[in-house]
Amino acid sequence: MANIQLKAVRKSYGAVEVIKGVDLEIKKGEFMVFVGPSGCGKSTMLRLISGLEQITSGDLLFDDELVNNVVPAKRGIAMVFQSYALYPHMTVFENMAFGMKLDKTSKQETKARVQKAAELLQIEHLLDRLPKQLSGGQRQRVAIGRAIVRDPRVFLFDEPLSNLDAALRVQTRLEIANLHHDMTDVTMIYVTHDQVEAMTLADRICVLRDGLIEQVGTPSELYENPASLFVAGFIGSPQMNFLKGAFAEKHNCTTLGIRAEHIEIATAADAEWTGKVVHAEDLGSDNYLFVDIGAGDPLIVRRPGKLETPLGTELNLRPIAGHIHRFDANEKPIR
Amino acid sequence: MPTTPFWRFMFYAGVFAIVIIAVFPFYYAIMTSFETGTAIFKPNILPEMFSWQNYEQVTGQRAFGSSILNSVFIASTTVFFALLLAVTASYALARVRFRGRSLLLMTILGVSMFPQIAVLSGLYELVNFLGIYNRPWALVMSYTIFTLPFTVWVLTTFMRELPTEIEEAAIVDGATPWVIITKVFLPLLWPALVTTGLLAFIGAWNEFLFALTFTISEDMRTVPVAIALLSGASVQEIPWGPIMAASVIVTVPLIILVLIFQRKIVAGLTAGGVKG
Amino acid sequence: MSSDKSTNASPTAGKTLNLEQQRVRAAYMFLAPMLIMLLIVAAWPLFRSISFSFTDATANTIFNGQSEWIGFDNYVEKKIRSNGTIRWKGVLVDGDWWNAVWNTVRFSIVSVALETILGLLVALVLNAEFKGRGLVRAAVLIPWAIPTIVSARMWGWMLNDQFGIINEIMLTFHLIDKPIAWTASSDTAMIAVLMVDVWKTTPFMALLILAGLQMIPRDMYESARIDGIHPLRVFWRVTLPLLRPAILVAVIFRALDALRIFDLIYLLTPQSDSTITMSVLSYRELQQFGDYGEGSAMSTLLFLIITGFVLLYIKLGRVDLSGEKS
Questions:
Q1: Who contacts C225 (Cβ-Cβ below 8 Å, separation ≥6)?
Q2: pLDDT (tens digit, 9 = 90+) per residue, A195-216?
Q3: CB atoms within 10 A of CB B37
Q4: C58 has which bridge partners?
Q5: Which residues of B touch A98 (CB under 8 A)?
Q6: pTM for the complete prediction?
């Protein structure tokens, strides 16, 4: 278990500052996800926590102990890499046992711990195989197994699902979620650019942008109370509708935000927005209508069930009360 | 690949010419090595006689046999030590960023470009000082001036190609740089070691200048010097037959090695030469 | 992992080494043996050789410490004779030396040019897809695999003025009317040397250029073909520019080898003044005449020329030889 603290942490590569002063506290046993667009610094932060990169200034503490100068192997961490990073010339068993071998753990204990992790991940039948004989999903599980076997206090995931195909991604996501439920005292830090992964796996999410934290909070906090325009637009799929100009001025703000699922069909009398359907996406369970209300980009509206609204239909729409997000000229929410 | 019949013909004609030019001299040497007496002095393209006499003469000379042994010992030993030093050095040069790294790489490349003659007198003094003049160790030591930079250079290129994440996983597992080299990278690198070793071996085997200068007695010579100094019954007569036989004996194993390891050799040479 | 030159601002930064520091320290230790070895077999002998060039050392006196410092006299010395005439002595005013320099330059330019062009042609052939390509590549490797001494003897034999097959073939085809003393005659000695060197070294150039060729993506040729562009045009406008880095690297490696050539000259045309290169001249001075002072001066000059050439080439070609930036 680790309570992790970052205090005024900065990271520069030469003249380029990549992490520009981050303060963050990660609670023991929680599943924290770092999310953000490419180049925001999420992977760098993960690597700073792991010790693979050195902090330029600021402090990093594990359980109130300064670890800035501690090598990764002694921080009590384990890491799962995007490309699995299995040792190609070693069997699955040897891959998982490698860390313990270096630690001079006894043969019996090594065997026991590898066996236990293998059972947990259902890879016992693969222990004698070489990585090249495994499928992508199996390799990922071995990589996770190798990390579990280290008995870490912090588990680090660096975009582990990016190399998997869509179906495998969902399945492995579930396995990682189960892992978190089983290992309740292990802190997990997970990096991804996919906000769906963030929303489904996280206890708390940390949204990063350009080397700074935009917001930290639970998925529902980020969803319901985004602390900035950026977070509002980043979280949630499809992206929140943003209206400017006259549409926003009507609500006394610079930008008006309303999610697709918070718009309802109204009568002509109560309608705030009207327009023709210019495009539709039917997903079977829901369908998304793109309505041109004269605001530049079409408004995305979610309708449940099968598509019944043909293109060109004129719709009367209004926002559901209590779900309007108003943002001022500084992209901050107006409460 | 040309499409019109005329250019296709020209292409294959060109291929044919290339192969003939490349192979003919050695074919001719082989043919000559099986000729004796006056037949040698008749210029013929196709073989007209066959005799082992030249080979018997050459292998009968004890000095020839000992020159082969010398060459094998010297080339293997110098390459072995070069590889030993190069493996760790190339890890440092390829995978750890430190100040002055590029300068060091350029310097090492520079050393491999030394004209051998420029260090000859200095090495001669050193060899005598160490008391290893006319001993194989003189050559084992002096050959390092080109085997070491070469192996470091080529191995550095190969080391660079190894994936970073595997190294990072090993670091997280608690591996020190030495463990990373020996337990994680070396198993992946051994084909590169074979290739590099082979290329360095060929270079050491063929070396002439130092071998000529630092050995003086017949039983200490290496193969190139032994062949160069093969002399006939009288001062005027050059024993072409035995010379060709000796050449063939020494070259055939090399050619076989090169043909077997063709692909790897090409990869090694181009790793050292071209970086895309 | 990266390195930045900053340190931790935290006041409690401990005495333990972080990962980066640990790795850098290990790197220094790993480099030490190699550096020490190079110091012993390269740096020190080079220093000694250069020192010899400033002394009057001979084969006898280099070991008994009786040689004396004479400054630049080996390079150039002004001697005033008893009758008042001034005579200049030294390598820099030695006709033999400049002859050797000229031979070396001549040899280098022609051999590198020929080997690059022929190497390019061979590389183009090997790059094409046809049956038996593997065999052709194997055949092409053979000249490279053969030791220099063997090549020298083989070709020496083929170029023999009385019994050589080359003369025989040329006579048969009426290309010449009497046999040529290829290695002995000063008109043809250089041609003989070039013949052998081009034969030996073109495979190496071809391989380097082939590697560059194979890095050019195939779709470029396909789209050019679809566009109906003439193959020769494609070659000039697309292939050659993309090959430039590979060719530049191949040329410089080859040029440096050519400038310092010793083996082939010594073995094929040992007595010829029209092929004697700087290396061979220096060797003759050192070993045959035992003049360590002058011989070392020559070898030092050769060393300077080569170093100068490399630096110039790097500056002008902006060639990144260390491969770091790729």
A1: none
A2: 889 999 999 999 999 999 999 9
A3: 10
A4: C291
A5: 170, 173, 175, 183
A6: 0.86
